[in-house]
């Protein structure tokens, strides 16, 4: 059956050197069994993992790679889920979205792509912006975005009313670029959470960048983190180029879903995240890798992503002794499995 595979000799999420070797049986595209020396399954192909580290496939939670080449780069790194932000404006209209939809179709066998249509010049700055976003959601965009409601449009209330109104009309999620810092950005977080509560959108809203969290005092930061957790609003951060002080550990402890935009280099992105946050302990390095994988999938609303029996068999095997070693060494994957199928290397 398609999606059946037996992977031999891998170390699932190895935290220390010398972790035990196990086999992984995939059935119908899902992890069916994990254990040592599993018996052969009639009719099921086998593939060797070479003792490598087995990780869930990587996730790019904030990307602008809307072209076929961009998606190919993500897939080549073992990324199997990506959220791609596509600009619309009066000049380009829906051209970038049409290209992204075509690219998504072309790479559907290698990765799942969520498309966010966002207003490249703000919601209020162009008369056609709201109509274009409306049309984009009709055309195939999965989510509607916004762009710095105060910094771009100088009217965060109207900006968010338009974005959330369109989300409510289409039953779509929201992923908002929110780079406004300090108390202004904090106020916008409160406005977002008000709309989440009013429209019953818990678990369907993401704040990308969310620079305000790193530019307010500790007490204000604590209240904002609690507010995000209360309303189940996810946060994504991006490397390179974002501030170093997103309170990653505090967000995770509070139960806020956090994802990473890594630009096609998930291990490099995890490495930069550890360096920016001064994380040297093994468990903290592993947390950053999780943000680039299972945690990132949760931030995008996908909760069956991991190394538990019953999870989707979207997997990566790396020639590394531990997860932390993979971050340091950044090796190319030796095996990439999507829905229980071994993917061939992408074209050169």
Automatic annotation (TrEMBL):
Residues 72-343 form the Amidohydrolase domain. Coiled coil: none annotated. GO terms for molecular function: hydrolase activity, acting on carbon-nitrogen (but not peptide) bonds, in cyclic amidines. Gene3D superfamilies: Metal-dependent hydrolases, Urease, subunit C, domain 1. InterPro entries: Amidohydro_3 (IPR013108), Metal-dep_hydrolase_composite (IPR011059), Metal_Hydrolase (IPR032466), Metallo-hydrolase_Enzymes (IPR052349). It comes from the Bacteria. PANTHER family: BLL3847 PROTEIN (PTHR32027:SF9), CYTOSINE DEAMINASE (PTHR32027). This is Cytosine deaminase. It comes from Gandjariella thermophila.
């Amino acid at each position: 059956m398609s999606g059946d595979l037996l992977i031999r000799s891998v170390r699932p999420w190895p935290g220390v050197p010398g972790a035990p070797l196990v086999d992984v049986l995939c059935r119908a595209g899902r992890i069916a069994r994990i254990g040592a020396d599993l018996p052969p399954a009639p009719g099921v192909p086998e593939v060797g993992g070479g003792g490598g580290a087995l990780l869930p496939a990587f996730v790019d939670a904030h990307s602008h790679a809307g072209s076929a080449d961009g998606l190919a780069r993500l897939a080549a790194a073992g990324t199997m889920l990506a959220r791609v932000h596509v600009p619309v404006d009066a000049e380009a209209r829906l051209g970038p979205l049409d290209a992204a939809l075509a690219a998504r179709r072309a790479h559907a066998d290698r990765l799942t792509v969520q498309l966010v249509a966002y207003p490249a010049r703000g919601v209020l700055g162009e008369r056609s912006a709201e109509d274009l976003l409306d049309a984009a959601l009709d055309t195939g965009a999965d989510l509607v975005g916004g762009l710095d409601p105060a910094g771009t449009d100088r009217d965060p209330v109207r900006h968010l009313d338009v974005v959330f109104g369109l989300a409510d009309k289409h039953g779509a999620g929201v992923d908002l670029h929110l780079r406004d810092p300090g108390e202004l950005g904090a106020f916008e977080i409160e406005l977002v959470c008000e709309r989440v509560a009013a429209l019953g959108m818990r678990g369907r809203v993401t704040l990308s960048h969310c620079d305000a969290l790193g530019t307010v005092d500790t007490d204000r930061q604590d209240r904002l983190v609690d507010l995000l957790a209360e309303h189940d609003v996810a946060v994504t951060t991006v490397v390179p180029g974002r501030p170093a002080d997103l309170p990653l550990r505090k967000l995770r402890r509070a139960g806020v879903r956090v994802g990473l935009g890594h630009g096609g280099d998930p291990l490099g992105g995890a490495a930069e995240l550890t360096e920016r946050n001064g994380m040297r302990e093994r468990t903290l390095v592993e947390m950053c890798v999780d943000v680039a994988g299972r945690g990132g999938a949760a931030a995008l609303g996908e909760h069956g992503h991991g190394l538990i029996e019953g999870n989707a068999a979207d997997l990566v095997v790396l020639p590394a002794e531990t997860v932390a070693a993979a971050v340091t060494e950044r090796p190319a994957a030796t095996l990439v499995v999507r829905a229980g199928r071994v993917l061939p290397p992408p074209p050169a």
